[in-house]
Amino acid sequence: MPTTAATSPALSDRSRAANPIPTPSEPVSHVDGGCGVAHDPASPVWPEPAIWLPEASPGTLILTPAPPDFETVHSIDRNAFGLSIVGRTDADGRELVVADGSGELHVSLRDEQAARRPAVLVPLDGMGELRADVALHFVRRLSGQRTGLLPAALRLTSFQKRRLIQLLHAFDVHDLGGGPRDVAAKVLASDHAQRRSVEWKDSHARRKANRLIHDSIALVERGYLKLLRGL
């Protein structure tokens, strides 16, 4: 998910009074590990992507050592896969994020032998087809074919990226106490936000601003997880 955020200057008192804003349905604790967004807002923002749990992300390739009888297995040439931008090792193994022009492939190495004798683990859950598609792209890339790391279903389009940035901007305005007028002015750059109450009430900008606020709250309240599944 894009990490672009925006700040807003003083917000309209009239907008806050005339347009009550929906609040998140459940409070989310930021001290017990339960964050409403992928990155705890109280923590510094680093230019690194989040590392997702494999069970939540079909775009995470799970590698395990191949059985010993498979003598033709070849080790992975990391140079063939693009730039490794994140690496982390913990008790569960090693996590890598590799990037190319098609997106970011998350790789979970469950054992130090997994890179030398790789076998792909494809859980047959509700995202099994997507996981298999990611594995197929991996196999093709490993054999030298020119293909993206991710299938098309898991790539954000330019429109989706612009939409997500707009939603995050709208949420910032809302989170600072802004109402639909403020979102219309600061996010949509609409002059309808300055119109009289009667004209503003029936305007397209007001309806669009309300939708942005509603959708931005849903996105932050774990709706972003749908992006991992290509939804």
UniProtKB/TrEMBL annotation:
Instruction: List, for all copies, the residue spans of the domain called DUF7012.
Output: 60-116
Q: What is this protein called?
A: DUF2285 domain-containing protein
Q: Write down the InterPro entries for this protein, in alphabetical order.
A: DUF7012, RovC-like_DNA-bd
Query: What are the start and end residues of every segment in region (Disordered)?
Result: 1-36
Q: Pfam family example for this protein?
A: DUF7012
**Superkingdom of this entry's organism?**
Bacteria
The UniProt record lists the T6SS Transcription factor RovC-like DNA binding domain at: 121-229
Q: Ranges of Polar residues compositional bias?
A: 1-10
